[in-house]
């Protein structure tokens, strides 16, 4: 029930943002004829994960269409996250009313932004990060049962699905193992008052001596568009969002010790140690310019797991102390949570249906154009469109590659993030984006130059289109056109 409520509140938008990379890769694995141009903008980044190959294999074996397969795994991943969180909460809180309140809050907060990391707890489309999170929580549940063999397998599997998030999961599990160790915990508890009240109790992380190749100018240019990568450029409230959880875990630890909730105290201690250590590591790694190549790994993403447990434990405490057993407060609680998150998502994506289920027609002119292109142009068609199209009004950050299933010249938004992860794409990206600069003023000669320089033969332009283009489809907002050779008078 809570999975369904959370899913309905967060919405479903396949092809959105990061899914432009992941969904394109899955479709390319299923149909190698797709994306004959510039496929490196999604293929290279996915070399470190089995996500796309796993999804392609699942589709081939089950014969479930990829759109429905992605929806199935999105819902299943959210369900496993809540199921695992419920089992964890049941071990940490003895009252029957606390765990349901915890997962109710967690489910409603799926789209909660995580400080300055540009992450949500879960995405509005299938993301390997969501699948990895489900595996990590399963492992944590087993560790709390003092069973160690299966968690190792689950964490290794998470590492194959999303390496960066799995590393943070492994890190937390290590601190949890330490907190669950009786000898360590008893010794720490005997000195707890001194440790909790000392301002000098945080040890500095050892410096790293990694040597990186000098970053290229195009890579630095792409990196500069991602301000959230740079911790020391975060705003005051973003720093507050990063550091406040440490105080909250400290308060939770004291609360649990006062109530003699042994396992909750150990879990709070693990969270405090994990958060402190990872924060120090991030501050060390992101400070010197010599380690700038580390920046795209985003060490502050450790906050994802922190915020997840903040939501879960906060909900459990609400269930323990406020909601009680009365129906009225629970109804108000669920309506306020899910209704508020639903309204926020409608404000973020106002031009798209809240639930973009497979086969459901969209009134969004961009999605309408993508659908027409997918069904009416050759698979080897090579498109150019506004390099900033993702951020244009009404587009709502839907990926052309993933939804139109056609090759395109590099864009200036999503492909930029890919370049930060795959520096060798920098020169190609910069050349293509620079060639499209001033797109809103392009005329036939400019489009012809793209054809000459890159071999582009198809365009997605605003309606009405510039003169002399051969346009074969349009709606109120957009036109699909081909570039004609002025000297020969025909389309390429």
Q: How large is the share of residues in beta strands?
A: 5-15%
| Series of H and E elements | HHHHHHHHHHHHHHHHHEHEHHHEEEEE
**Mean of all residue-level pLDDT scores:** 89
CA(first)-CA(last) distance: 54 Å
- Based on secondary structure, the structural category is mainly alpha
Q: How many domains would you count in the coordinates?
A: 2
| Envelope shape | globular
Biggest sheet details:
5 strands, mixed
Number of strands: 7
Order of strands across the widest beta sheet? 2-1-3-5-4
As residue ranges, the low-confidence spans are 195-212, 486-492
How many helices? 21
Proportion of residues in helical segments: 55-70%
Radius of gyration (CA) equals: 25 Å
What does this structure look like?
The chain has 492 residues and is mainly alpha-helical. 57% of the residues lie in helices and 5% in strands. The protein has helices at residues 2-10, 19-30, 40-43, 51-62, 66-92, 98-108, 128-144, 149-161, 163-180, 182-190, 192-197, 217-223, 236-258, 262-285, 303-323, 327-348, 365-376, 400-404, 414-421, 426-435, 444-454; strands spanning 382-385, 407-408, 458-462, 470-474, 478-482, 484-485, 490-491. α18 (400-404) links the parallel β1 (382-385) and β2 (407-408). α1 (2-10) packs parallel to α16 (327-348), α12 (217-223) packs across α20 (426-435) and α13 (236-258) runs antiparallel to α14 (262-285). The longest helix is centred in the first third of the chain and has 27 residues, at 66-92. The N and C termini lie far apart (54 Å). Mean pLDDT is 89; it is low at 195-212 and 486-492.
């Amino acid at each position: 029930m809570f999975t369904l409520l959370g899913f309905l509140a967060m919405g479903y938008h396949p092809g959105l943002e990061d899914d432009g990379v992941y969904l394109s890769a899955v479709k390319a694995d299923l149909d190698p004829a797709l994306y004959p141009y510039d496929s490196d903008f999604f293929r290279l980044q996915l070399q470190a994960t089995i996500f796309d190959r796993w999804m392609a294999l699942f589709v081939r074996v089950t014969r479930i269409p990829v759109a429905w397969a992605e929806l199935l795994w999105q819902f299943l991943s959210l369900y496993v996250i809540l199921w695992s969180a419920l089992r964890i909460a049941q071990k940490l809180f003895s009252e029957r009313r606390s765990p349901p309140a915890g997962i109710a809050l967690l489910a409603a907060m799926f789209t909660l932004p995580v400080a300055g990391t540009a992450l949500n707890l879960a995405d509005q489309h299938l993301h390997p990060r969501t699948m990895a999170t489900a595996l990590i929580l399963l492992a944590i549940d087993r560790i709390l049962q003092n069973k160690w063999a299966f968690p190792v397998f689950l964490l290794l599997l998470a590492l194959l699905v999303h390496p960066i998030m799995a590393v943070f999961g492994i890190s937390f599990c290590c601190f949890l193992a330490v907190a669950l160790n009786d000898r360590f915990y008893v010794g720490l508890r005997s000195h707890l008052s001194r440790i909790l009240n000392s301002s000098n109790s945080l040890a500095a992380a050892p410096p790293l001596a990694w040597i990186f190749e000098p970053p290229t100018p195009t890579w630095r240019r792409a990196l500069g568009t991602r301000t959230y990568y740079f911790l020391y450029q975060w705003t005051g409230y973003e720093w507050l969002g990063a550091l406040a959880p440490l105080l909250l875990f400290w308060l939770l630890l004291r609360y649990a010790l006062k109530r003699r909730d042994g396992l909750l105290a150990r879990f709070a201690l693990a969270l405090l140690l994990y958060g402190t250590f990872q924060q120090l590591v991030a501050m060390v790694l992101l400070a010197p310019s010599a380690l700038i190549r580390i920046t795209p790994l985003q060490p502050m993403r450790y906050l994802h797991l922190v915020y997840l447990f903040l939501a879960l434990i906060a909900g459990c405490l609400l269930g323990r102390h406020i909601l009680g057993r009365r129906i009225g407060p629970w109804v108000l609680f669920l309506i306020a949570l899910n209704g508020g998150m639903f309204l926020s998502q409608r404000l973020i994506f106002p031009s798209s249906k809240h639930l973009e289920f497979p086969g459901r027609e969209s009134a969004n002119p961009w999605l309408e154009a993508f659908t027409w292109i997918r069904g009416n142009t050759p698979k080897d068609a090579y498109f150019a469109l506004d390099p900033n199209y993702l951020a244009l009004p009404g587009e709502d950050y839907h990926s052309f590659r993933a939804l139109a299933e056609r090759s395109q010249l590099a864009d200036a938004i999503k492909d930029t993030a890919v370049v930060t992860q795959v520096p060798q794409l920098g020169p190609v990206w910069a050349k293509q984006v620079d060639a499209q600069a001033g797109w809103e003023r392009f005329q036939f000669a400019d489009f012809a130059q793209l054809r000459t320089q890159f071999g582009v033969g198809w365009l997605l332009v605003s309606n009405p289109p510039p003169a002399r283009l051969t346009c074969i489809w349009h709606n109120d907002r957009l036109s699909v056109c081909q570039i004609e050779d002025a000297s020969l008078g025909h389309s390429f």
